[in-house]
Automatic annotation (TrEMBL):
<keyword id="KW-0999">Mitochondrion inner membrane</keyword>
<dbReference type="Pfam" id="PF05300">
    <property type="entry name" value="MIC19_MIC25"/>
</dbReference>
<feature type="region of interest" description="Disordered">
    <location>
        <begin position="30"/>
        <end position="59"/>
    </location>
</feature>
<dbReference type="GO" id="GO:0061617">
    <property type="term" value="C:MICOS complex"/>
</dbReference>
<protein>
    <submittedName>
        <fullName>MIC19 protein</fullName>
    </submittedName>
</protein>
<keyword id="KW-1015">Disulfide bond</keyword>
<dbReference type="GO" id="GO:0007007">
    <property type="term" value="P:inner mitochondrial membrane organization"/>
</dbReference>
<keyword id="KW-0496">Mitochondrion</keyword>
<keyword id="KW-0472">Membrane</keyword>
<keyword id="KW-0449">Lipoprotein</keyword>
<keyword id="KW-0519">Myristate</keyword>
<dbReference type="InterPro" id="IPR052632">
    <property type="entry name" value="MICOS_subunit_Mic19"/>
</dbReference>
<dbReference type="InterPro" id="IPR007964">
    <property type="entry name" value="MIC19/MIC25"/>
</dbReference>
Length: 158
């Protein structure tokens, strides 16, 4: 907060009586205007005290409060930027993860299709072998049938 801050802020006037901020501290226009008021320390204090205006301590307190507000605003903006960066990072990571999952699932699907094709081909070859064996058995049975018919015909002739 503004009251308990131990940070020292130093500034100096340049040749045009403009205020130069040291150490990168930004001041609002109202603070700069108040700081541009008569620069003699004794005159400033006497003038303000006589008119019931702001004394040096109050001015320092206001400056510290405004600096604290400015610091809080910068911190908030920095936090918003970090949050946006983190969101973009998460979105990118999520996209990469989805892409890996898609590739992986495509690979699994491709492997399953290849296994199924191989199994189908194996079944087709097995069916062809069985068909050949069946034809062979059928030819054998026909041979045996012809042989026995011939034998039966011979026996009947005798």
């Amino acid at each position: 907060g503004g009251g308990s801050s131990t940070r020292r802020v130093t500034f100096e006037a340049d040749e045009n009586e403009n205020i130069t901020v040291v150490k990168g501290v930004r001041l609002s226009d109202s603070v700069i205007d108040r700081m541009k008021e008569p620069s003699s320390p004794s005159g400033r204090s006497q003038h303000r005290s006589a008119s019931g205006g702001v004394n040096d301590e109050e001015l320092k307190k206001r400056i510290a409060e405004e600096l604290a507000l400015e610091r809080a605003r910068r911190d908030s903006e920095a936090q918003k930027r970090r949050l946006k960066q983190e969101q973009m990072y998460v979105r990118d990571e999520f996209g990469r993860l989805l892409e890996r999952e898609r590739i992986s699932s495509n690979e699994h699907l491709t492997r399953a299709i290849l296994r199924e094709r191989a199994a189908t081909e194996e079944e087709r070859q097995k069916a062809q072998r069985f068909a050949k064996q069946l034809e062979e058995k059928d030819r054998e049975l026909k041979k045996h049938d012809a042989y026995y018919k011939e034998q039966l015909a011979r026996l009947e002739e005798r």
